């Protein structure tokens, strides 16, 4: 049950002691599944002897991956714009289709249109709400710990796991004899 050496920088409300210098800090490095987390000062994050920052996680492609692929910033921006344009056109088509359906329903009768209108009013408001929240979701900076610090974290987790296993196993083991040997 080991974890990868990719930590995400997050902020907390309550300060705790820094892993390195024991000063109070609200910055936490945590794995994606929060199996491991470390309170660390922001000054230690810039220290290459402690951790190195990985590429941007917002686009899903790290900076090193972009360099390997050989894409320039202009090419990436162009592809993003094209994708956003396609998404906008899809939304417009969906809205036009809804408008056509609404006009069609109005022609059939007032009772049906009233029930359709009451049912359609909540649905447009719900899809529009998640879109801005998804766009404004903050992306966390990614870090990789120095191999020695990461080895310390792995050793600590291994020790915890072994201690838990011993505590589960100990009651099942037989006790030592208490009677004196004749």
TrEMBL record:
GO terms for cellular component: endosome. GO terms for biological process: vacuolar transport. Residues 80-182 are annotated as: Disordered. It comes from the Eukaryota. Residues 80-115, 139-150 have a biased composition (Basic and acidic residues). This is DUF1742-domain-containing protein. It comes from Heterobasidion irregulare (strain TC 32-1).
